[in-house]
Task: structure prediction
Amino acid sequence: MTIKGKAYIAGIYEHPTRHAPDKSTAQLHAEVAKGAIEDAGISKDDVDGYFCAGDAPGGAWPMVDYLGLNTKKLRHVDSTETGGCSYIIHLGHAAEAIAAGKCSIALITLAGKPRTGVMPPRAAGAEADFESAYGATTHNAYGMCAMRHMHDYGTTSEQLAWIKVAASHHAQYNPHAMLKDVVTVEDVLNSPMISDPLHRMDCCVVSDGGGALIVTTPEIAKSLKKPLVKLIGHGEAMKGPRGGKDLDLTYSAGIWSGPRAFEEAGITPKDIKYASIYDSFTITVLMQLEDLGFCKKGEGGKFVADGNLISGVGKLPFNTDGGGLCSNHPVNRGGMTKIIEAVRQLRGEAHPKVQVKNCDLAIAHGTGGLLGVRHAASTAILERV
Amino acid sequence: MSEAKKYPAPVTNPETAAFWDAAKQGKFMIKRCTACGEAHYFPRSICPFCYSDKTVWEEASGEGTIYTWSLMRKSPTGPYAIGYVTLKEGPSVQTNFVDCDLEKLKIGQKVKVVFKPTDGAPLPFFTPA
Result:
């Protein structure tokens, strides 16, 4: 049993807003749902599967009602919550449901306003008494990974800075990007230290916004007008300190989700023309590239240096919308926009300055939670038909 | 450096109450599985490695080395250094480093446990040995 080729992404929409003090979170979900439905050229009454994560106010049933989905037709829901990679996991789960005949047109939404207001706290896990007092945040949890990666492999701040430099080269062409200025390695190194060894420019932006996808059967996708983009491989995985045994913060759950997706797709990292890689921090990208097999463990620093991630310059164009480091990071969750830019690349709809030539195979990969503590990862491999 | 920082009291629960009772006596406890011999942290009643329920409390030496760290330069309560310590007994534990120059921490450095008060049971932290 495989989901290879069983589901197509027929609709995408990224909210242009980066700051939405005058809108509600539910409203942003509705706006992105409407955008993806219109992009696909279907009616909202055709949707028979709905997927959302922890950012959806009240969860699945209030959202289904608020969005006015057709409850006579809706027959599959999934509110898997795995932080920023939830939507990549949803994509795989939608394909599974479609392959099993449980739905035929799935809507996935993400939206929220961390830039406008405070995000609701996550429910406490079993570890709370033993960890929460120590103040693990995204900054320092990823800082701990970077510190150990530098210690074990000699990775440098200069190498990490190249990831931000590449993202900024792409963001200059995105009119919606929060940070459009091209930056240099020196700019990154001279930005204030936030949590050692990560500088401010090693960190992604905080933005309001959202995005949505329509996932459907091959038959329905072919009846619509958009270029065909199919899911050919998918993987998901989780990792944590596991009782403190053999702690190793230099790799992520991507080391498992990646090979699962590549095996299902029947291709290797060398075949990938474009990569959307979750960039909550520069170190996130470096670790994921290693874990996915684009280079050997420990050689990520060399791999990303000297513009190797810049479209038209390097071997692996990444995050051509500017990514989380420069464009947006709606709800502090990067998975959705990673899929959307990968689909744009495969459709040939990316900005001409960053569009990858003959882009027929792309990867969208993300993590959720804290790499330095416990997290999930999900990998999707997409092909232009 | 002022140490006026107020830490939250552990909520505790039946599975972990013995850990916090021992902390009040200044003892740093880990759990060990008598079936597979592995120690783990934070404490669970079922061994996370072999799923045996034959886990027992063991007082740890409180000594270990820094696996990694990161100095959070700004926060509402001031700078703090978070990290993991690999205990002599094996498990790595998340913690903050205290009572030292936070900019001079090093991976591999020897550290020891020190308890800080809360409104409930005291919390374990680590400081250079």
Summary: The CA atoms of residues 11 and 119 of chain B lie 11 Å apart. The mean pLDDT of chain B is 95.
